Amino acid sequence: MVITVLVVDDQEMVRAGFSALLDAQPDIEVVGQAGDGAQAVELAAELTPDVILMDVRMPVLDGLAATQRILADSTPGQPPRVVMLTTFDLDDYVYAALRAGASGFLLKHSTPDELAAAVRVVAAGDALLAPSVTRRLVEDFARAQPVVSATPVGLTPRETDVLRLVARGLSNRQIADELVLAEQTVKTHVSNILTKLDLRDRAQAVVYAYEAGVVIPGPRH
């Protein structure tokens, strides 16, 4: 199954470069390019791509506002997966985009393999949380958020344990090793967590975990 992608960046060379790299993949097709957020909103509605690579800072309409509009206007149950592109490790726009429903972010100097892998990861329904900069970003901005509750309503103790490890950026396999569980069991727990907390994906689960006080920001959790 081919993954369709919309590339959004105000620099033409960046758009062309990313598009060429992705089009070279047998399972990825770039169906459109946009030079600003307003154009991205129009093309997203017209082309309904699986994944959108969205620059953060652009003229006319920035990436955050564009992401909010695209996800708000998308067909219920079938939203595109948005990956924010940034040149900065820590960027408040990216954090806000995660809260708005973006599935993660990628640094512009990532390798071609990392770029293609990012598209595949979010297209599969996962969040792009592996880079340690993502955890640093979420921690940095979550420090200023009020603690609501350390025990999410409706989650079992085991699901709470899994949520804490998701917030640390661990994969399902790593969580399984940590808790001595089958990987499929962890996957089921994650699915239950997202359903019970009405979250879009793991990216929103990470933000929720920090903001709700399930995980306290710091070097170790």
UniProtKB/TrEMBL annotation:
Record's keyword annotation contains ATP-binding: no
Protein keywords: DNA-binding, Phosphoprotein, Transcription, Transcription regulation
SMART domains referenced in this protein's UniProt entry, alphabetically: HTH_LUXR (SM00421), REC (SM00448)
SUPFAM superfamilies listed in its UniProt record: C-terminal effector domain of the bipartite response regulators, CheY-like
Protein name: Response regulator transcription factor
Entry keyword Phosphoprotein: yes
Domain of life: Bacteria
Residues of the HTH luxR-type domain: 148-213
Pfam family, one: GerE
Biological process annotations from GO: phosphorelay signal transduction system; regulation of DNA-templated transcription
Sites of 4-aspartylphosphate modification: 55
Boundaries of every Response regulatory domain copy: 4-123
InterPro entries (alphabetical): CheY-like_superfamily, NreC/VraR/RcsB-like_REC, Sig_transdc_resp-reg_C-effctor, Sig_transdc_resp-reg_receiver, Tscrpt_reg_LuxR_C, WalR-like
Molecular function GO labels: DNA binding
